[in-house]
Amino acid sequence: MTYFISRLRYFVGTKLRDFTFPLFFYFFLRVNLNSWIVNFYLYSIVPKESRFNHTKNILFLEKGVFNDEIKEVFSDKKFKLLQLNRKFTKSLSNFCFKKKVNQHNFKIVRNNKKHLDNFRHYLVKAFKGLNAQLFVTFNFGSEEDEVIIHLKKLNIPSICLHKEGLMTQGEYRDYIKILSKRIKFPGKKILVYNETIKKILIKHQNHNAKNLIICGSPRFDKILNAKIEVKQMKIIMFLPGLYKSLPSQLGINSKMSWKNLCDDFLNLVKVLSEDLYDYKFILKSKSRDFELMKNKLKEIKGENLILDTKSLASDLLKNACFSLGFNSMALIESACYRIPTINCMFGEAKNIKYEKYIHNYGSLIKNVYSIKEAVKYVKKNLRVDFNKSISNKDKKILDKLIGNSEGDSIIRVRREIDKII
Fold first, then answer.
1. How far is the C-alpha of 11 from the C-alpha of 299, rounded, in Å?
2. Which CATH number characterizes residue 295's domain?
3. What's the domain range around 203?
4. pLDDT at 294 (0 to 100)
5. Rounded-to-integer distance, Cα 321 and Cα 231, Å
6. Could you tell me the pTM of the whole model?
7. Which DSSP letter does residue 40 get?
8. b/e map of 205-222 (b: 16 or more CB within 10 Å)?
């Protein structure tokens, strides 16, 4: 009952916070509000079944799937989780620097000493009296860097569980370009997915190798250690993003897109859902991709077809019998659940100039190059018995891509955290 109440309080608090935030922010900038009010808008206490015996307070920057990774990493009852309101830090930086601040311009805008001093003044006001032993972020390069610098003055160390881990060859090259626009991560350590990203950060940001630790992707621990469930007649189709993995997603000017690929993928959804009418189809889309393609998505209808923009991929995949997508981490999750999985190499994916922006999954995931080939492969493998274990060959691929083939990433992450706090 106590856990239910804490979840209810968290839900109601989140809704109230979002609805009244503009009013709070207006007064925060102009008067000295009660510290309880400031703390209410600054962070939320994440509900946990063990509410007591907390000895360590962990402040973390909120971000979609990252929130769930944090809950897994800090599941031990000794940790109390404080979820930092990203809307607050974004609004504050935009106000103080008088423009929209992001990873691509923060290094430049912070050179304005007057604006920077103003931002720092409000950070002092906001974080006054904060009781935390660690701050965890998923990235660096924007206003969170100044939060890290400020917390350092309060003797609160920071680490980055680096989410920019799985990249294509082209993305790695583009990432190197934008690193020059970011200040060096000012926290204690960066915990990365793989050797490639570690080498890039050492070479192009002069990080100390001792402060860059390969821990792999924590989100895969739960999947790799999951008990394989009985498969239902459910097929998950991950909608490709129009600009997924392409330069524009990192703020680099580019006219490249996956338009033809996305069109072909939607045609495949229509064909499969009509042919396999006994199966339930879930078309999973990120909200931003849905907004870009919503007009075409509205044209796809079917009683056995559901559009989902909210669920986690891992939750949808648990008892699915097949999955399809393109260039997605979700496809690796699917393969780790031992589900037949295909990467749809349609449209632009067959053009050589796009080659460096496509993941090489090796034997882990099957590539298909046309709607006809995809339909044939799906129908042939729908009722094939899944493998109960991942082959050594595929484990080597997982280690290269996500640094985690045994489901022990969180152990490595906690080991590094224990060295700090």
1. 34
2. 3.40.50.2000
3. 2-221+407-420
4. 76
5. 5
6. 0.87
7. H
8. bebeeebbbbbbbbbbbb
